[in-house]
Amino acid sequence: MTYALVLNSGSSSIKFQLLDPNAGANDEPLVSGLVERIGEATGAIALTVRGEKITSEVPIPDHSAGLEMAFALMAEHGVGPSDVEITAVGHRVVHGGKVFSAPELISDQVVEMIRDLIPLAPLHNPANIDGIEVARQILPDIPHVAVFDTGFFHDMPPAAALYAINAETAAEHGLRRYGFHGTSHEFVSQQVPDLLGKSADEVNQITLHLGNGASASAIRGGHAIDTSMGLTPLAGLVMGTRCGDIDPGIIFHLYRQGLSIDSIDNLLNRQSGVKGLSGVNDFRALREMIEDGDTDAWSAYNIYIHQLRRFIGSYMISLGRVDAITFTAGVGENASFVREDALAGLDMYGIEIDPGRNGLPNDGPREISTDNSRIKVFVVPTNEELAIAQKATQLAARMQTSVS
Ligand code: AMP
């Protein structure tokens, strides 16, 4: 069997999986791991190998050491990079700007192009580059592929992609709606035509990726025509800790009140959203608080649902005809109450949730609407690692064929 290694590098962490790219969306990877607290006094490596959990608490000076240590730990358990055949390494890269529309085989030049995009994703792209450089050094003979979070939205119509900001300034600074979570929206939306028994080009659909980060997309015939995140992943829906769409004037106002740009950034990205309103960002805790009568939690939940319904409504109008609405990611897959409230009272638009189906535990792609519902509602588990593994393996194989 051959495997793909998928890496998602953050500023102080590396998440990775070693998996069979032909596996099913719900299959366990051979290895999943997390190297965390890189550069801090106490670091940790957590691995799950064939279901067995292995942890090691050890200082991790940098990304390079972290990946080396993780590979050594994997080797101790017979699943190191020299124990299994790895045909491709897929790297999640957050921002592909206007340059990258599809996965790209990584060369020195591609790394430089990703580096040029750092101003658009100052928190994410530098960490992604660290991961790429380290992994290329450790595994120099395997093709490395960058898979961009923005790629799926690359061909959005200008009316959805452009902001009504002075055109010269927008062009100079690359200001446009890039969209994020593209790998997830694509992976999930590609399964919907089969669930409907239709071909991809005849399906109009809305996908709702509701995790700690959250985004909505309108997709016509397999192409995204709108999405809720923008230049950055701060825009759109209310999220775990991010505010989503707000009046941009709030930023000037806070700045003029004396808050620094960095503290406003921190406020809107990390201290807002459901957490900023209620104190928690996990929907299980939020629900418990609501059941205990906590009014802040109730208010946070209502603001979250209100914003979600605004996007669903506007995408129904943009698409004209909608065949399916699909929920995915941690909240979308597990929180039946969110799905119910997001689509409550929409019978007149042809949307009817079946409470029995909606209440079933998360177990693979499934319909949760009634048989009469004109618009079908689905839960489709996302698996971004598998999607990246598939894209990386396919591109590596294509390159192999074109070289030989
Ligand atoms: P993700 O970013 O896709 O990993 O989603 C993480 C979020 O999913 C968590 O912060 C929770 O809010 C939510 N979540 C995960 N499991 C459940 C569950 N069983 N019920 C409700 N929410 C859940």
UniProtKB/TrEMBL annotation:
Its EC number is 2.7.2.1. Keywords: ATP-binding, Cytoplasm, Kinase, Magnesium, Metal-binding, Nucleotide-binding, Transferase. One of its GO terms (molecular function) is ATP binding. Pathway: Metabolic intermediate biosynthesis; acetyl-CoA biosynthesis; acetyl-CoA from acetate: step 1/2. The record marks H181, R242 as: Transition state stabilizer. The keyword Magnesium applies. Its main location: cytoplasm. It comes from the Bacteria. Pfam families: Acetate_kinase. The active site is at D149 (proton donor/acceptor). It is found in: Cytoplasm. GO terms for biological process: acetate metabolic process; acetyl-CoA biosynthetic process. SUPFAM superfamilies: Actin-like ATPase domain (SSF53067). GO terms for cellular component: cytoplasm. Substrate binds at R92. PROSITE patterns: ACETATE_KINASE_1 (PS01075), ACETATE_KINASE_2 (PS01076). Mg(2+). Can also accept Mn(2+). InterPro entries: Ac/propionate_kinase (IPR004372), Aliphatic_acid_kin_short-chain (IPR000890), Aliphatic_acid_kinase_CS (IPR023865), ATPase_NBD (IPR043129). ATP binds at K15, H209, L210, G211, N212, G213, D282, F283, R284, G330, V331, G332, E333, N334. Catalyzes the formation of acetyl phosphate from acetate and ATP. Can also catalyze the reverse reaction. Belongs to the acetokinase family. Homodimer. HAMAP family: Acetate_kinase. This is Acetate kinase. It comes from Corynebacterium halotolerans YIM 70093 = DSM 44683.
